[in-house]
């Protein structure tokens, strides 16, 4: 009986660690994205911020940023009002390993100057994003 329980626990632990291993993001270096919020998708287990970054030549590059869950954000004091469209913010995080303009946030600096550390959820990585259609990043 004890052996069966150990086998079951071992079998269920592997998918959990694989789910939270950060696969898909380049954790070898952090990036910083500064831009204006265009849209926020309040989902669980992770919400997404869509940000437009204005380049030196005047062009705009869209980014999708994976952040904490809607519930987690609320606990951190990040509300829908603090992430309204056109809100300027700075994101520090890790870029998608495939080079797409997708990032996993480590911190958000909000317009009021607060720097909010995202819970260590070790983002799902590109696998979750590949199951969804994200405008401009297919």
List keywords for this structure.
138 residues, alpha+beta, 5-stranded mixed barrel, globular, disordered C terminus
Q: Give the termini distance in whole angstroms.
A: 48 Å
Number of strands: 6
- Backbone CA Rg: 17 Å
Give the biggest beta sheet: 5 strands, mixed, barrel
Describe the structure.
By secondary structure, the protein is of the alpha+beta class. The protein is built from three helices and six strands. It has helices spanning 2-19, 70-75, 126-130; strands spanning 31-41, 48-54, 60-66, 88-95, 102-109, 115-117. A five-stranded mixed beta barrel has the order 1-2-3-5-4. A hairpin with a 6-residue loop joins strand 1 (31-41) and strand 2.
SSE topology sketch:
Elements: H1 2-19, E1 31-41, E2 48-54, E3 60-66, H2 70-75, E4 88-95, E5 102-109, E6 115-117, H3 126-130
Parallel strand pairs: 3-5
Antiparallel strand pairs: 1-2, 1-4, 2-3, 4-5, 5-6
